[in-house]
User: Which sequence fits this backbone?
């Protein structure tokens, strides 16, 4: 398509006529892979004579095409863009980036990001040369813009992936320093200068985010940079041109420069300037930073904050970052000494006023209470909020320097309380009282464990907090509820005070002001948790739930759902009369939240979080009424539409929560309805398509279908559940790309089939054994090998004669039994068994091996019989010991629990304040740390491998899944099998006994005695159950 034709098609893509638009889009899709298409699009984007709307459409199409096709996503995928076109695009995009208007530059920047991530340095080595050349040119904006994108590629890279950064820094930083130097010397600089400095700051930030490049270890070089940053930090922001609107003002170029400068200095200080954090080679740098710069930065920061004190403007983000720096300085002696002379002014004239309710809060409270609530409960807002940073500063101060500051600060708060109480209504310092209450709530951990304050808390609540429940000022009523919640767990000497606070919080749920209602619900959670006598809440439970759902109709907030879960947890089966209504309300709230989340399309949208919370609360309700199966029949019609829709790709964000509900519904309902069976194909489709990571979660409902709906599973042919299960399991187990850990649930499911369908699925024994043996050949992880071997054990228990003949026909019988016996004998360095670690594993193996004892001599030779017999005895002894050990541990745990009734304030930990200085722009690092932590946790839950000697826990059984073999006692099963052999083939039995040495004869006698003991115990349990049933 030539250039004029392409322009016409792009113009048509803007047409108000949907048919014309569709035709244009089809035409673009048709020609997008033709040679020169990308180049022509770029020509239109940069053509100043072309209509701006057409250029914009071209830029979006260009960006999307590059994102999708610049480099293949799969290893064997064809290249969609010719090398010639790529070269032309790379060469020209650099030239035009600075020339096009900002609207188009954003799109080209995204394209550059894709190209740089794919091509630099291997396919685009000339890029760095171009940057060097253009950084020495008069028009440096384009070079800085591109260098920013390049530096971002390596911002979060570490170790080898970070190597290109050193070369980039070496080649470009001398030029950057030169440009920066010239820019700060310009008198009356324009906004364009601010944009250039901001880009330099961002490049520097990305380059030092994880590690300081070695070039900056040169003290002269580093000092040159620091002088410039300190210059920018100290220099007042130009007054001329500042926007009047505070929302626009904070994004104004010069304030952005100030923010990035503070950001960089904070990063250098917290990550590289702290002696405790450093490895030895960086220690010298940290010492130099502390000695030469940390104090100077502190001084500049205090001067900046002073602007607030005298009524000047400082953006919230800058204030927040400065306070983070100050918080990090409290624990360092030399820094604290610098801070001390100005500490009183800082604390009482800057930090405390920031904690108080202000004009912006009042405006938002009145004009948009929903937004007020959202901001108050949004963790991202906290990262930017001066108020949160102020609370953190005070908390850190009293935690690390409490001796000299706690009493002084509390005295200040008491003075405010006093002044408030003594002032007439029209002059009461309501906003200061709000700040004082916030401070008291924020310091609750410290005050709960520090005398003399600890003893005075109840009196303080009664005197200064409770009266505000009826304050004429809404924000004080809200704050009273919040503070009361913070202290709900203290030991009240007068239970009437606890009662009064609880009832005031419940009344707050009916307050005319929305933020008061929300804070009251949040506080209620603490009171429900702390409540020792549920009769305090029981009479008002119906009205409480009523208010609750009214509020849920108004606000999508995860914390509301947490409170509901706490109530349900606390009242358990007493929630039965409300279960249906609760589920209906939560289901309605869920659909509302999902609709909001879809409309907003934001992953961390509060609606999406609240939707997850609704499903979790439904699970909590189902768990609390699990002994009342009739209720499950009642709630099923309400929950079915959620399960149906959310088991498809629409439910990827809530899949785990939905599967939990499906698990409860299939396990606790009296029977599994046909409607519930209709969910089976959805789970199979999800597993085949995208949900392999959720296989362990899907295993639970599938087990329930097979074990609780066995007759339907076996008889139904439309759909054919047996065939569908085989298709899924065989596909997953034969997939060579699947890791061992991905498929662990597959052999577990085969075991479920064999255990639940004994004698009814003979036709499936051979196919399942075949894929099990095939997978066993290439399995590496010991845990999967154990699971696959347990499939063989379960098949033997299902039908030993059939299983053995199948293994012989497959030509693997000798190998399989050899491997099995070898795995049973394998021990770790510690002497513990390397395989079949859980009770359940040992039991399955016992039942499988014992089943072989009944086979005649032509199927199991005398020699093989002896080996099986001995292995079974060894395993039974190990099983007996493990069961005894687990019972002992359980008993010890019960004792610990009885000892553990401590109140909150007796058992407080001093280090309870949250970490300082987590930053929104540091979010990726915080995320990666969180992911590392989660990965470590996940690893610890996975069964240990052969070489992993110490991480094993033999007693962490996941045996909450029920199974038909639960009622089979392996000792009785073994003894009965031996007796049957003795009766049916006495000479075979005689020969076996004669081959056993004294050790194994003793073991056999011990097992026989234990079996009889177990028989008596089981009989006794049955009688007790029967008499209990009769009595009830």
Assistant:
């Amino acid at each position: 398509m030539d250039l004029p034709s392409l322009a016409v098609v792009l113009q048509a893509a803007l047409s108000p006529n949907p048919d014309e638009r569709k035709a244009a889009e089809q035409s673009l899709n048709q020609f997008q892979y033709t040679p020169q298409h990308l180049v022509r699009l770029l020509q239109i984007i940069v053509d100043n004579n072309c209509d701006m709307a057409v250029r914009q459409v071209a830029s979006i199409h260009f960006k999307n095409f590059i994102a999708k096709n610049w480099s293949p996503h799969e290893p064997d995928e064809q290249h969609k863009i010719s090398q010639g076109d790529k070269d032309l695009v790379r060469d020209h995009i650099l030239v035009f980036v600075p020339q096009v208007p900002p609207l188009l530059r954003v799109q080209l920047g995204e394209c550059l990001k894709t190209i740089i991530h794919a091509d630099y340095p291997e396919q685009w080595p000339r890029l760095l040369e171009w940057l060097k050349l253009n950084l020495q040119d008069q028009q440096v904006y384009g070079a800085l813009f591109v260098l920013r994108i390049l530096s971002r590629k390596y911002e979060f890279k570490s170790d080898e992936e970070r190597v290109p950064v050193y070369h980039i820094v070496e080649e470009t930083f001398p030029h950057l320093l030169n440009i920066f130097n010239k820019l700060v010397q310009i008198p009356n600089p324009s906004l364009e200068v601010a944009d250039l400095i901001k880009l330099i700051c961002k490049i520097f930030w990305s380059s030092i985010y994880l590690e300081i490049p070695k070039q900056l270890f040169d003290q002269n070089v580093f000092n040159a940079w620091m002088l410039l940053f300190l210059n920018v930090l100290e220099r007042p922001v130009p007054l001329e041109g500042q926007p009047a609107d505070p929302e626009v003002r904070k994004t104004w170029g010069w304030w952005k420069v100030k923010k990035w400068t503070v950001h960089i200095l904070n990063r250098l200080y917290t990550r590289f300037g702290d002696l405790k954090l450093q490895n030895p080679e960086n220690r010298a740098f940290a010492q130099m930073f502390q000695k030469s710069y940390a104090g100077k930065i502190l001084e500049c920061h205090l001067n900046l904050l002073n602007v607030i004190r005298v009524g000047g403007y400082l953006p919230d983000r800058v204030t927040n970052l400065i306070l983070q720096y100050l918080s990090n300085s409290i624990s360092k002696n030399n820094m604290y000494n610098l801070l001390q002379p100005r500490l009183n002014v800082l604390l009482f004239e800057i930090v405390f006023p920031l904690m108080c309710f202000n004009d912006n809060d009042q405006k938002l409270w009145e004009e948009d209470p929903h937004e007020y609530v959202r901001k108050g409960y949004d963790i991202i807002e906290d990262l930017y909020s001066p108020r949160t940073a102020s609370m953190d500063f005070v908390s850190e101060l009293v935690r690390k320097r409490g001796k000299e500051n706690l009493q002084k600060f509390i005295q200040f708060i008491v003075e405010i309380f006093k002044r408030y109480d003594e002032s007439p209504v029209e002059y009461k310092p309501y906003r200061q009282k709000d700040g004082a209450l916030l401070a008291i709530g924020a310091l609750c951990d410290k005050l709960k464990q520090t005398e003399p304050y600890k003893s005075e808390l109840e009196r303080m609540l009664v005197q200064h907090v409770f009266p505000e429940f009826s304050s004429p000022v809404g924000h004080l009523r809200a704050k009273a509820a919040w503070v009361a919640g913070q202290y709900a767990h203290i030991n009240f000497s007068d239970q009437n005070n606890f009662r009064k606070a609880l009832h005031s919080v419940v009344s707050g749920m009916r307050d005319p002001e929305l933020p008061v209602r929300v804070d009251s619900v949040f506080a209620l959670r603490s009171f429900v948790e702390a409540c020792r006598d549920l009769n305090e809440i029981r009479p008002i439970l119906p009205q409480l739930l009523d208010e609750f759902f009214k509020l849920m109709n108004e606000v999508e907030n995860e914390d509301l759902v947490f409170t509901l879960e706490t109530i349900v947890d606390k009242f358990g089966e007493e929630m039965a009369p409300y279960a249906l209504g609760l589920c209906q309300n939560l289901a309605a709230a869920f659909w509302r939240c999902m609709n909001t989340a879809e409309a907003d399309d934001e992953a961390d949208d509060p609606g999406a979080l609240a939707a997850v919370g609704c499903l979790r609360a439904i699970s909590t309700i189902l768990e609390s009424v699990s002994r009342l199966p009739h209720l499950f029949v009642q709630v099923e019609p309400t929950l079915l539409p959620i399960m149906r829709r959310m088991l498809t790709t629409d439910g990827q964000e809530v899949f785990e929560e939905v599967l939990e509900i499906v698990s409860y519904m299939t396990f606790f309902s009296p029977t599994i309805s046909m409607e519930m069976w209709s969910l089976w194909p959805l789970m199979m489709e999800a597993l085949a398509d995208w949900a392999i990571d959720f296989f362990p979660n899907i295993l639970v409902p599938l087990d329930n279908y097979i074990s609780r709906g066995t007759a339907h599973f076996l008889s139904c042919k439309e759909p054919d559940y047996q065939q569908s299960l085989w298709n899924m399991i065989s596909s997953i187990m034969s997939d060579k790309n699947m890791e061992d850990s991905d498929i662990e649930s597959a052999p577990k499911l085969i075991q479920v089939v064999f255990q639940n369908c004994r004698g009814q699925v003979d036709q499936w024994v051979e196919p399942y054994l075949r894929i099990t043996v095939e997978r066993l050949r290439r399995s590496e992880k010991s845990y999967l090998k154990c699971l696959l071997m347990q499939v063989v054990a379960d098949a033997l228990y299902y039908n030993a004669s059939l299983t053995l003949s199948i293994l012989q026909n497959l030509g693997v019988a000798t190998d399989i039994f050899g491997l099995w016996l070898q795995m049973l004998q394998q021990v770790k360095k510690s002497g513990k068994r390397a395989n079949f670690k859980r009770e359940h594993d040992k039991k399955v193996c016992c039942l499988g091996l014992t089943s072989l004892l009944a086979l005649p001599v032509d199927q199991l030779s005398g020699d093989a019989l002896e080996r099986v017999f001995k292995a079974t005895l060894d395993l039974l002894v190990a099983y007996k010991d493990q069961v005894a050990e687990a019972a002992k541990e359980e008993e010890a745990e019960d004792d610990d629990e009885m000892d553990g009734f401590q109140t909150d304030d007796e058992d407080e930990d001093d280090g309870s304040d949250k970490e300082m200085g987590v930053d929104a722009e540091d979010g990726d690092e915080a995320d990666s740390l969180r992911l590392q932590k989660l990965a470590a946790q996940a690893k610890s839950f996975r069964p240990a491998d052969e070489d992993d000697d110490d991480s094993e826990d033999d007693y962490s059984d996941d045996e909450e899944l029920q199974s038909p073999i639960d009622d089979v006692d392996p000792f009785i099963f073994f003894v009965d099998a031996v007796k049957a052999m003795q009766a049916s083939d006495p000479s075979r039995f005689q020969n076996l006994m004669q081959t056993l040495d004294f050790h194994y004869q003793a073991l056999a006698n011990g097992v026989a005695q234990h079996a009889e003991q177990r028989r008596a115990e089981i009989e006794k349990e049955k009688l007790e159950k029967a008499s209990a049933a009769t009595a009830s």
Observations:
- Confidence is low (pLDDT under 50) at residues 899-959.
- The first helix runs from residue 3 to 12.
